[in-house]
Amino acid sequence: MASEIVNPRNELADAGLDPAFALHRGGKMAVAATVPVRNADDLSLAYTPGVARVCGAIAQQPELVHEYTWKSQVVAVVTDGSAVLGLGDIGPEASLPVMEGKAILFKQFGGVDAVPVALDCRDPDEIVETVARLAPSFGGVNLEDISAPRCFEIERKLQERVNIPVFHDDQHGTAVVTLAALRNAARLTGRDLADLRVVISGAGAAGVAIAKILLGAGVGDVVVCDRKGIVSADRTDLTDVKRELAALTNRTGLTGSLAAALDGADVFVGVSGGTVPEPAVAKMAPGAFIFAMANPDPEIHPEVAARYAAVVATGRSDYPNQINNVLAFPGIFSGALSVRATRITEGMKLAAAEALAAVVADDLSPSRVIPSPFDERVAPAVAAAVAAAARAEGVARA
Fold this sequence. Notes:
Blueprint: H1 2-6, H2 19-24, H3 40-46, H4 50-60, H5 65-68, E1 74-79, H6 92-110, E2 113-118, H7 124-134, E3 140-143, H8 150-161, E4 166-168, H9 169-188, E5 197-201, H10 205-216, E6 221-226, E7 229-230, H11 240-248, H12 258-262, E8 267-270, H13 278-282, E9 288-292, H14 302-305, E10 309-314, H15 329-338, H16 346-358, H17 378-392
Helix pairs in contact: 6-15, 7-8, 9-10, 9-16, 10-11, 15-17, 16-17
């Protein structure tokens, strides 16, 4: 069994002592009615015969579904359980606690209802077909914890099939928050994005999306490294996704290891795990930025990073500057749903990053280049920016 491979210890042995089990008992979600059904009159309006009049109106004018159902405020959180947190391929049932958690974060931070959908299939075309058939019930689709490179194909094909936003958060949420933190780190130190050379450790879902958004934002150069070193055009072992990445990045034609890429680099972005040796970190440019985001063990420990970097960020909540996707996805979907967007464009992602950075732009410090997830300004600012960008790019329907 996958769970035995990932963690052979019997978790139930500790369940009585672990507060996480107590919190999760019975699940973390429930469906709540927004209208009362107290008597026969209420019943006749909420259900038959009153509901038939609403159904008939929607049949005649399909756009009314947004006004008279929950469609415009609900997202499907879809997974196949193939790449869950740091646990890996644990299957759909074991992924459900994470999907429930994602759904309550949508509601808590963005006011968006979300429904976990864990699918028992792995073929990309089957996933696309299944979600496309479910799409009429939802205003958007958040793909979650689907392994690379399948996640790229699934997102692309699904967006081609449906006219609602499809957003793989492991890619784009991470990318948006990373760009926001980098913008503020550059502002804090008086540098332009165009002057920065960024090294990304990890060429999976997050690494690819971060590389693309940084280039779209005007970063001078990005070098991506996988387990075999720098992703460069001369390599013969690249997947289609990495070949595309090689064509977009590494403008100076570097080859070799991650350590070679870090020599003189201005920024390190870690989304891979593993450990970067301190001598390689020491060769980065003076005043570097180190965003080591692997959890629970950053690729470069914050204490080591602080010896060489002007700004340090991690994926952990117990250190400053946590790169946390919850800063992005609730506001992005809230904004997209508010204007009934058909998709989430690159421009909408860039707008989200700029709005997120602006929340703390007047209060920057080395330990504050990104807001707290509990800053109540975050989701409204991101939502407003995303909605405005959707209208500007012609993908809004309201």
